[in-house]
Design goal:
Layout lengths: L1 H6 L3 H8 L4 H7 L5 H13 L5 H7 L5 H24 L4
C-alpha cells in the first residue's frame, strides 16, 4: 500500500482519486438522466445559478422526487467512502 501512495506523487492523480461525483454524474451513471438532459439543466442553471440541478430535474419532469433523493443518498455514501478511504491511507 505504501507503494501505491508514493506512486501518487502527482497532485492531479491524488485529486482525481479523492474527487467525489457531482449529482449530475451520479444521475447519469445511474441511468436516471441522459446527457442531453443534463446539458439542458446546466443551461437552465446558468440562467439562474440559485437553482440546484436536482431541483431543476424534478421541475422539468426528468426525474421524480424519489429519484432525486435516492441519488443524493448515493452521492453522500460515495463521499463517505472516499473520505474514509483517504483517512485509512492517511492522505487527508
Amino acid at each position: 500500500m505504501t507503494e501505491l501512495i508514493s506512486s501518487l506523487t502527482n497532485q492531479n492523480d491524488m485529486d482525481s482519486l479523492l474527487r467525489v461525483e457531482r449529482l449530475g454524474e451520479v444521475l447519469l451513471r445511474e441511468g436516471k438522466l441522459k446527457l442531453f438532459q443534463i446539458a439542458d439543466l446546466m443551461e437552465q442553471q446558468a440562467e439562474d445559478p440559485t437553482k440546484r440541478l436536482g431541483d431543476l430535474a424534478v421541475e422539468n419532469g426528468y426525474i421524480s422526487q424519489d429519484d432525486l433523493l435516492d441519488s443524493l443518498l448515493a452521492q453522500i455514501h460515495i463521499t463517505q467512502v472516499v473520505e474514509a478511504s483517504a483517512r485509512e491511507l492517511a492522505i487527508v
